[in-house]
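Hey,

The postdoc asked me to send both predictions to you directly instead of through the lab channel. I've kept everything plain text so nothing gets mangled by the mail client. Protein one:
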Amino acid sequence: MTSTNKTAIVTGSTSGIGAAIARALAADGITVLVTGRDATRGRKITEEITGAGHRAVFVPSDLAGEPARVRAFAAEAREALGGTVDILVNNAGIYVTRPTPTLEDDDLDRMLAVHIRAPYVLVAELAPAMAERGRGAIVNVGSWMSRTGLPFGALYTATKAADEQLTRAWAAEFGPRGVRVNAVAPGITLTEGNAAAHDMAKANAKGTPAGVPVQPDDVAAAVAFLVSDRAAMVQGTTLDVDGGLTATRLA
């Protein structure tokens, strides 16, 4: 590990893709703030990272809360990281893909809050200080589904498309002052949360150039690249990490 002075917040990092991102950034010498609603899982991931000789802290959050609560989390996270946040990864997500007529109001509100409102508030709270210092990186986690018309999950896909547009707008807004904003769009990714669908995901992936489903570490590697100095000229883009799912047709 090469030690750096950089700090990062990774939302939704108590499991799955978020946990993989937290591990990857910590392995690059970045002090990572792990956050999510489940304190037990959050502390487990944090202890795993610190046990490997890296730096991490845990601060709980519920990003479905009102904007004031998200602002309070931003302040608490910034304090836990010593007063400076260099990297923000908006990863937290709620995967509900019911047909439009049967989507419950609570799920509608939670997806809008977690996928759009919370990232918006966090960027509003944290990006100005990055811009004042002249450096920073923000990565939004979208989805391969955001650019594909599907007969299910209309709101989920729309919110992920909004994340990609926010990426472009924020790159234009904050990029000239040193804050790079990009996104990653994972394909069908195998996580502990979708274990029941792993066989179906593996079957579907056979029709892609990669031939296998995406793993959380694949997405984490892309995020680690985008927040690094190696990606200095990558701004306002969405990097597909989907094995070629959205870009190709093999049959």
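Protein two:
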Amino acid sequence: MRTPRTILPAIAGLVAVLLVPGTATAATGCAELARGSNTDAALAATPDGPVDIFQTGLVGNVFRTRIDPRTNAVASFQDLGGVSRSEPAGVSMGAGHTAVFVRGGDDALYFQDFTNGVASGWQNLGGQLTWNPHAVSTGPGQLIVFYRGTNRQLWYREFANGVWGPHTSLGGVLTSSPIGVSTRQGHVAVVTRGQANDLYFLERTEAGWSGWTGLGGRFGVDPIAVSRGPGLLDVFVTGGGSKVYGISYNGSSWSPWRDLAAPPGGAVSEPGAAATGSGELVVFARGGEVRTPVRPIWRNSSFDGGATWSGWLNVDVGYGTPSPNNPEATANAFGGWTVAATNFPTGARVGPLRVCSSTP
């Protein structure tokens, strides 16, 4: 996912959102990791506590940094090597178990997993990717990875019962990365942009795969999606007026689009989002301060499923310009969230990663 160069017009018929200040949790603190990168990171939170952060390095190698979200302290670091032509996709399949996917130097899908810290080494899963992959766990020891193929269709490959299934096409014409999320065990949903830069959705339930459903809008960036409970899905995207917009699914129908307004200076990134174990639905965006040389990370939180929002609150001011990369977020095992974004110092083309967490 990349920062938009232009923001397309806003959606018609947006629903206003009541802002309720003072309800969002505060960050426990932020830390800066010394690993240099110029791509977005991927976060994978394990249910037993640690968060793995994956980054693609300057020469295509992949870093794995494990942190404790209660302190943001680094627990371990590995240079995994490899040749990545994409941002990494990280996922946890259970306690002590994470995995990372990348588009390799030959455009095939590559995978590496970690069981209690022991790495499997890179495995070639085949296929031909034309964008960043995205991985989702559908239950303990089960995962599914989505990607855009050379025909611009949505493809996936699934790991279940210790075996990889075949590469399978779900059709469509994608103009962004596919963003997957599991809404309950065995269920998975995907959101992506179509040919007109509008959003599309499909899901798999016990009945199998649905057809594509158009969600409307017109966006120049990738969306992000999270689930805050069985059958529930929340989608966020940056749109017209440099604002962030959201739409929710209750398992059978979609809400109207909500206007979550803009952080100070407008949103200059794609959003990140998390749905925490303490009931906080939180969306992150990088602001564009026009009078100071900073690009802070801001957050907007809801504790009632998106009906009311806190308004934009500052998370981390420690970013210089240009800092174009997007905030990536996850719910952590302690009921809070962890968010990470690359900090480009003034005039630099690469920079370290800054990480902030909350643990209510």
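Summary for protein two, as requested: Residues 18-357 form a domain with the Neuraminidase fold (CATH 2.120.10.70).

Thanks,
C.
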